[in-house]
Each structure stands twice: as structure tokens, then as C-alpha cells.
Amino acid sequence: MGKIYIIDVTNRDGVQTAKLGLSKLAKTLINIELNEMGIFQSEFGFPTTHHDTMYLQANLELLRIGVLKPIRLAGWIRAIAQDVETTFKLVPDIKHLNLSTSTSDEMIQGKFMGKKNRGDILNTMLEAVNEAKAYGADSIGVNAEDASRTELDFLIKFGLKAKDHGAARLRYCDTLGYDNPFTIYQTTKALAENIGMPIEVHCHGDLGMAVANSIAGAKGVIDGGQDAYINTTINGIGERAGNADLVAVILAITKSKGFSEKYQLGNHIDLSKSWKIAKYASYAFDVPIPINQPGVGANAFAHASGIHANGMLKDASTYELYNFAELGRGEPSFVETGREICAGQYSGISGFRYVMDQIIGDEAISFHDDNEAEQILELVRYANVEAQKPLVEEELLFIAKYPEITKKILTLKPLDY
Ligand SMILES: [Zn+2]
């Protein structure tokens, strides 16, 4: 029986969303929080994009020293040999790659204007897979962009060829959010049966069905005899109407009617990290969490009407499917309403020391001497320039703990470029 694994793409699909972005430090902390939560893989960035280079290298260093473990860090590139080459030149230690190309006739026609046909798409993709293998990639996923508008036979051929050349997974991208749970189920089942390779489902919310499509697609893959991988983003942040929301997908798998009797997560996910990761992503993206967001919205456990409140006061299971504490909620949050000293890009040493002293319940932040404190402060200033908002406790702690890695994360230009 196949299992379900989560691949979060916040640091790739999330950050390519119009009008939104994340600092490299925020992307790093998201990788750390995804790892703590037990997420199988983070699509952590674009290895051919020069301003991502140092961030990607620094995060692979965090993997080497065991901070990002066991999560897999995968890069996303176009499925062309030249991109693979650039990837291994700029980020030589990268081990997991997703190679993406368009597969629907609409996209092939629309993008290449008659200069490419299906055969060209296949050949170019295979060259890229071969190249990635030659460079020693541990796992290669091939992404079929606009798969939901691609003829099934071609999609099967695309997957079979990729598999023959050593790809580990096919990503079925419902790029336009066109599928519904019934259609995606049929398609992913057929793909799993005919290709005999694990399938990823990548769903968008243009018709409000990203989460429903994700679990229906995963069910199709498992019924077809393979492991299923679901792509998510934190708070559903993604292009246009967004992607399948991480927390909602996990809730749908584990809490929806009868689903988990047969379809289960392949590894333990710590749902109690949900609140923290959703709040952090909301702060980092500067996008509030909708009050009706599943699990983490302000109203997700609020009751007012007479019949509901009366039921809740007697027995919580009357109007709630799951408990707030399971998501890590319940601690009152503290908002300063008086004087505040913040660490910013123009901070001085005494203000900074005061801020660090206020961080409680920690790994005891103590600086050996003024010189060390000054060095950390300099990094905090740079991090603040990049984030353009006050750094939160986790960010300050990270900088104090890993100053050398932070230095790399804050360097936007590759050293030898
Ligand atoms: Zn997408």
C-alpha cells in the first residue's frame, strides 16, 4: 500500500507569487520549521538564479551540520541540460532536483509558437535528466507543467521515458487549477498504473479545490499502486489563487471522514508545529492569515451562536473535529503596548544587547566579549536591511547561533561571479 509524503514548495512557488517575496533568512527559517514539523522535502529555491546561490549553499551547509535533517532540499529548474550544468556550477552540493517543462499542446504552442513539438519536449527533458544523473543527483523529479490539459497518452509516455532515464518521480501539475477531485483521481490513478513510478500532485486554487484535488489525486496514485507526494505551501500562498495549504492538506489526510483508514502519511508529521509555522510565514510574507483558515485562522475554534456555544461548553466534540492544542495553539500571545527597543539596521550595541537579553526561554544568548556582540549586531543590521521589518526572536537566535552561515545567507552575489 502506497503512502503519502509532503513536499512543501513555499520557497519556490510561494516566493514567485506576484507582489510577494521572502528574505533569504526567512526562507532559511521556513526550511528549519518544515524540518522540525517532519515534512519530507522543501523545494528550497532556484539554483540557476544568482541571487539564490549563497542562500542555497548556506542551507546545504545547515544540512551537513545536521540542522536541516532529515528533510530533503530540492532545487527547481527548467528541464534543459544547460540549466542542469549551471546548477552544478553554482550549487555543486545540491542532491535533489525538479526539472520542469510544459507538456500540454496549449503551452507548447503558446510558448514555443510552433518551434517545438512533443518530440522536442521529450528529447530536451531526457537530455536534462541524463545530465543531472551524470552530475550525480540523488533524486530527480520531472515536472509536467499544465499536466491537467495534457493528453493522457502523452503524459504516460513522458513519465515512462523519464523513468527509463532514471527519474524518481513525475510531478503532475494542475498549473491552472483546472482539475476537480473526480478528474484528477482518474488521471493520477492511470498515471501510477501505467508508468509504475511515484507521482506528485501539484494543485492550484483557481476553482477553490486545491486541497480537495490534492487528496483525491493522492488517492488515485495510491489506488494505482504507487506512493503519492503532495505539493503544499504554507498558508496556501502561491501564484494567483494559491496552492494547496500545508496544514489543511495534513488535516484533510488525517481527519477527514474515513480517509486515513486506507491512505496514510509515510512519516510522522508533528501537527503541533502548525500554529508556529503559519504565524511565521504570515509575518515573513506580510500576508495576514484569513480568520476562517482551517486550523490556524483566528475563528477556527471560535464559537458564538447559542446552540453551538451551549454544545461546546458541554462537550468539545459537538462542534469541533479536532482540538486546537493539536495544532500548537492555546498559549496566549504577548503584544507589547508600552516602550519597545527593537533591533534594526541602524541599531547600536547597547540597544542590541538589551534586545538579546529580553529573549527568554532560550539557549542562553551570551556573547564572549563586546567584539563578538558587535559582529552579531552587524549581521542583524544587514538582515534587517533585507527583511525591512523587525527581526523576530527565531531570526535573532539563528543569527547569534550561526553567524558564519548567516553571513553567506545575507550575501546576494556569488563570490566568484
Ligand atoms: Zn505551481
Question: Can you give a write-up of this model?
Answer:
- The protein is of the alpha/beta class.
- It folds into 2 domains: 4-277, Aldolase class I (TIM Barrel), CATH 3.20.20; 349-409.
- The chain contains 16 helices and 8 strands.
- The protein has helices at 10-14, 24-37, 53-64, 81-90, 105-112, 118-134, 152-164, 181-195, 210-223, 246-255, 274-285, 306-314, 349-358, 370-387, 393-401, 403-409; strands spanning 4-8, 41-45, 72-78, 96-102, 139-145, 169-174, 199-203, 228-232.
- Strands 1-2-3-4-5-6-7-8 form an 8-stranded parallel barrel, surrounded by 7 helices.
- Helix 8 (181-195) runs parallel beside helix 9 (210-223).
- The longest helix is centred in the last third of the chain and has 18 residues, at 370-387.
- The chain is globular.
- Bound molecules: zinc ion.
- Zinc ion (ZN) binds at residues 13, 175, 202, 204, 238-239.
Q: Tell me the structural class.
A: alpha/beta
CATH class identity of the largest domain: Alpha Beta
The name of the CATH topology of the largest domain is TIM Barrel
What is the approximate shape? globular
Q: Report the helical percentage.
A: 40-55%
Tally of contiguous helical segments: 16
Structure, briefly:
With 417 residues, the chain is an alpha/beta fold.
